[in-house]
Design brief:
Layout lengths: L1 E14 L3 E8 L3 E7 L16 E7 L8 E8 L8 H17 L7 H16 L7 H14 L5 E5 L8 E4 L5 E4 H4 L7 E2 L2 H5 L5 H20 L4 H18 L1
Parallel strand pairs: 6-8
Antiparallel strand pairs: 1-2, 1-4, 2-3, 4-5, 7-8, 7-9
Amino acid sequence: MRLTATAIILSSRAHGEHGAVVRALTGDDGVQAGYVRGGRSRALRPVLQPANIIIGEWRARTDSQLPALTAELVRSRAPLHGEPLPAAALEWLTALTAAALPEAHPYPWLYQALSGVLDAIDAAPAARGWAAPLARYELLLLSELGFGLDLGRCVATGAQADIGYVSPRSGGAVSRAAAAGYEDRLLPLPAFLAAGGAADWPDIFAGLAITGRFLARSILLDRQAETLAARERLIDRLHRAVA
């Protein structure tokens, strides 16, 4: 096995005395794991930070062997790790992607979307420019893994107009007319989540409430409590930043 590709670092954990096992997302070959010799060294630790862009070369003699990985840094996001809010966003996005995606399955749309959100964070650390795209990345990830929400038409009436809510049980959209009298049992659906575009903070938090519920229920589950804790830290910091 030999693969050379541009990739986004998702995680790096110590292995042995000096090495590291790294997982990275490529555009055409999905998540790839590899062992980096000397990955815990002073020279390589900054290269292997989550959210960095590398050119990676994976080599293995057999398909069952963990490949050896060499990594050349293309783009460092080290300065963002020193700022609490952007750092929390990078931690969550990379942890979510690492936990959710199986290895070696191509997800080109997710690769492009994650690259776009990370670039937005790089360009505007204050969060106004990237919080809504982050919520839409979560929505796309749900869809790519087979848990997409049906936001195009009302599950009760089939209507495509005046959609205002999501059922917390089915993930289906509900029109305002069909929701009358049951609003407190439903999740408000902000327009940007389904259609894109700009969003104010109440809408952003409403969108994050929807995606967070279905990520926890369908993908991360109880065994990924540590990953969900990263999301909780991000949401808390977003609330404090807005306040």
